[in-house]
Amino acid sequence: MAWEANATPDALLVLLVGGATLLAVVLRHLCERIKLPPLVGYILIGLGLRLTDGILPILQPSVMAAFELLAALGLVALLFRVGLGSDPYRLLEKLPGASLIWAVSVIVSGMAGYYAARWAGFDAVPALVAGVALTATSIGVSLPPWQAAGVLRSERGSLVLDVAELDDISGVVLMALLLSLIPTVTAGGAIDWGGVGMTTVSILASLAAFTAACWLFAHWLEPPLARFLATRERSPARMLIVVAIGSLIAALAGILGFSLAVGALFAGLVFSKAPRRVRQDRAYIVLYDFLAPFFFIGIGLKLEPAALTGALGAGGILLIAAVAGKLIGTALPALWTAPKGSALVIGMSMVPRAEIAMVVVDQAGRYGDDVVPPALYGAMTLVTLVTCAVTPSAVQHMLKGGSTGRGQSRPAR
User: Fold this and answer.
1) What is residue 238's predicted lDDT score, i.e. its pLDDT?
2) How many CA atoms, within 13 angstroms, populate the side-chain half-sphere of residue 104?
3) How is the chain split among helix, strand and coil, in percent rounded to 5?
4) SS3 letters for 9-67?
5) Would you say 9 and 62 are in contact if contact means Cβ atoms under 8 Å apart?
6) What range(s) does the Cation/H+ exchanger transmembrane domain occupy (predicted)?
């Protein structure tokens, strides 16, 4: 075709990135109007590009490489934001009240995901990936109904946020362990459980050392750095330095074998003492809004259309496990620790799976189809789409039917 002869890879790449960015903005506003999380639209953009490539060969190797880079940067942006929104000191203070719900929720949802994947016909390692992915939640999907009802700062609203933050952090830590163990358990032959144990201890020790280094940076270097940037640099240069440091921390984690996602989360935690200073910076907002959609666009690009039909059955099984795991695992312990009558709505608020769940699947998928078969990738994407689309309206209905007392306010951050 004439256009193929004239279109250089650079021109095609600029065209696709520009078009994807424009579509992301349009679909974000459209999804907000119909009360859907924008990530649904972003994944559909990637799937649309994949389907278009079956008709017109637009996804050349150089184009795919560029989209993979943008997806990696989007991953860093997403996990940096998760870490930025977490306050380790406040979480430690809230740990006695939230730890029971968090621990039971992670164990039950993880086991539900593992055994559901096994029942769906996946081998042990892919099932383990599904189990780890389903331990995390995406509270950002459920926040709008809480905010609209005016109860986000109530006692039960604070509890939801605390448990969700613990879920996200534990999900990333479990992912780090999983990614480190995958080469050992997929090496072939009988599993050397002694070697697995030694690898686990080594990874935990390395993770503890990395955590300590990040804490030292956050405690001793971040405050004077923040003061220096506030007095000597203007935006966007000020924010570019923060982004550069966060990228270096994420890259270091990747070099050490923890993955970019782990490093990006810790980078966000480093700057979490004053998250508003970063999140309200216009340069940060623009950079995040540009990069974050490309992680989900990358998910859509990796979906194999032929595998989607085969993923429907497995997706249905994993969807039941995803909903039941969080509802049971969260609501049961919440009966003892949460305000009266709020256990079910807290459990429902934990059902959505989005960025952390798909980060786990995406990162594990780098080890090949034996670890994350196309059917599992498609099934987990379906779980993400359905839980994110349905949960907000369910939470809104439950909040309308319950008390909307404000209770104790959550400290402003």
Assistant:
1) 85
2) 17
3) 80, 0, 20
4) HHHHHHHHHHHHHHHHHHHHHHHHHCCCCHHHHHHHHHHHHHHHHCCCCCCCHHHHHHH
5) yes
6) 23-400
CA dist 219 → 69, 213, 261, 318 (Å): 32, 10, 22, 42
Question: At residue 95, what is the residue type?
Answer: L
Whether residue 138 is contained in a domain is answered as yes
User: What does the block give as tokens for 195?
Assistant: 């070697």
Rounded distance between C-alpha atoms, residue 153 and residue 63, angstroms: 45
d(Cα 145, Cα 192) in Å, to the nearest integer? Answer: 48
pLDDT along the chain (413 residues), means of 10: 64 93 96 90 95 88 93 94 82 76 96 97 95 93 90 88 89 91 74 73 88 93 89 84 93 88 92 79 91 96 83 94 96 91 94 93 94 95 94 92 47 39
Q: Is 60 exposed, middle or buried (0-12, 13-18, 19+ CB in 10 A)?
A: middle
Domain containing 348 equals: 88-290+305-401
∠ at Cα 203 (201, 207), nearest 5°? 115
The pTM score is 0.89
* CATH code, domain carrying 236: 1.20.1530.20
Distances (CA, A) of 393 to 112, 162, 230, 398: 24, 22, 42, 9
DSSP-assigned letters across all residues of 347-386: HHHT----HHHHHHHHHHGGG-TTTS-HHHHHHHHHHHHH
Q: Which two tokens stand for residue 75?
A: 């991953």
Q: Which amino acid is at 216?
A: L
Contact indicator for 222, 270 with CB cutoff of 8 Å: yes
Is 352 a member of any domain?
yes
Count of structural domains within the chain: 1
Question: What are the distances in angstroms from CA 220 to CA 214, 223, 275?
Answer: 10, 7, 17
- Domain membership of residue 4 (yes or no) is no
Question: Which DSSP category does 221 fall into?
Answer: I
Residues 260/72, Cβ–Cβ less than 8 Å: yes
Q: How far apart (Å, rounded) are the C-alpha atoms in residues 59 and 42?
A: 17
Residue 6 has a pLDDT of 61
Rounded to the nearest angstrom, the gap between the alpha carbon of residue 290 and the centroid of all alpha carbons in its chain is 17
Instruction: Tell me the two tokens of residue 297.
Output: 């666009």
Q: How many residues make up the chain in this entry?
A: 413
